Amino acid sequence: MSQNLAPTIRDLARKAATGDLHPLTIVDEVLHQIEHHKGNPIFISTVSPEAMRLRADELAALPADARAALPLYAVPFAVKDNIDVAGMPTTAGCPEFAYTPTKTAFVVERLLAAGGILVGKCNLDQFATGLTGMRSVYGSPVNPYSPDHVSGGSSSGSAVAVACGIVNFSLGTDTAGSGRIPAGFNNIVGYRPSSGLLSASGVVPCARSLDTISLFGNSTDDVRRVLAVAGGYDEKDPYSIELVSRSVPVGAPVVGVLDAEGDYFLGDELARTAYVHGVAQLRNLGFATVTIDYAPFKEISDMTYFGPSMSERTAVLGEFIRQHPNATYTPAVRNAIVKAADFSAVDAFAMLHRLKALERQTERETWSKVDFLCIPTAPTIHTREAVNRDPAWGSTSLGAYTNFAPFLGLPAISVQNGFRQDGLPTGIMFVGKRTDDMALLQLAESFAA
To answer: Poorest-confidence range of 203-212, 303-312, 364-373?
Structure first.
């Protein structure tokens, strides 16, 4: 959304509710931006202009008190195309997989009830498997800051839709970092809530025990406002939980950081410099920092792609691939899902036992000393050329700092950390203990401010 219309969700909703900005004007701007970016494969499908204008007219017809009561009144948003919207195809990035649901996903229903205007279904790495944004048969969404670099995945289209100003916020999913890495690469905020906080009803699963809907916005305040609407217990989702906010630490929280001299950036010195500057900013704000041992978190992260964890994706999609061997797949995704079938149940239980031991180790050695972590969103940002040369490494290497949070059910948020010397945006990530979402958002907002 252009900045003259929508600096923040708060301002846009207020201007629209008070009559300073008509919902039709907002829709016209959305349609203008879609046309302006039509060469960028951000969307797989969009709501028709007529339907968007009808939605705007319906909202405008509400009495003033009803408009003021809607926290997302006339705010445009988009959703990743593995999230159901009644009457619109859900493809999960595979044309042959597509179906048209009759019911809208739980979270999307709540956003619409709060006054939001749905714009469309966003492009994604096929079956939400990948972290580069280059695994879609519908084309690869282009990073608006550098067409030579990846946009990040798998929620690539959802992030780029916000970064390009088409919508104020969007929904992605996050199974291994897909709701955070694209945020860091596109200079926006990406938030993965505590597992179960956002209902997964109406979401095509990737790895169900790790999945969550994620939120993209231009600021932490935008994300918090969407979370306040989207969050809620859903009895139809067996993983759904009620948010129970824990007490915020007295005084300044203690934040765990990495030893910046370590080998954390795949040789990318500009990424190292950006992280060092981010930690320095955190300290200048008065936060105490403690250097942590990242090794147990890294071992957990490696379980995502280098072990039986991938078999959960095969459990969801393997039968479809067997029944549709000639469907339109991206080779990297198909190979990853098919090969994961080679793992046994014994392998899976061994991994779960090791995971539990590592979780206890992090509680004893790290979480007993810190309230939050401050780590890079990604070790580097790859060029599209590098990913084309080695698609598997291009994806797995980016998840070094995001992959562990889903295994432990932890909330994490990537926020803007300025620009590198080469002009590329960079993100920095804060991670909290499970259900510390409100305190985590507060810390991230303090940093961003």
So the answer is: 303-312
Res. 399: pLDDT tops 50: yes
φ, ψ of residue 121 to 5 degrees: the values are -105, 130
Is residue 154 part of the annotated active site? The answer reads yes
Q: Is 178 a catalytic residue?
A: yes
> Which distant-in-sequence residues (6+ apart) come within 8 Å of 332 by Cβ?
130, 135, 391, 392, 395
309 is catalytic: no
Catalytic residue among 136, 140, 154, 195: 154
Q: From the candidates 80, 151, 214, 395, which is the catalytic residue?
A: 80
Task: Summarize pLDDT for 102-122 with one digit per residue, the tens.
Answer: 999 999 999 999 999 999 999
Alpha carbons 65 and 77: distance in angstroms, whole number:
23
Instruction: Please determine, for residue 48, whether its predicted confidence score (pLDDT) is greater than 80.
Output: yes
Q: CA of 326: how far to CAs of 94, 106, 118, 323, 334, in Å?
A: 12, 33, 33, 9, 11
The tokens for 87 are 């009457």
What tokens appear for 22 in the block?
A: 């008509």
In what order do the strands lie in the sheet containing 213-217?
43-46, 117-122, 76-80, 169-173, 213-217, 189-192, 412-419, 425-432, 372-376, 254-257, 288-291
pLDDT at 114: 98
Cis peptide before 311 (omega within 30 of 0): no
Catalytic residue among 136, 140, 170, 178: 178
Neighbours of 400 (CB within 10 A): 22
CA torsion sign for 435, 9, 11, 416 is positive
Domains and CATH numbers, the chain: 1-449 (3.90.1300.10)
- pLDDT, tens digit, 9 for 90 and up, residues 140-155: 999 999 999 999 999 9
How far apart are alpha carbons 86 and 82 in whole angstroms?
A: 12
5 has pLDDT over 70: no
pLDDT of residue 389: 97
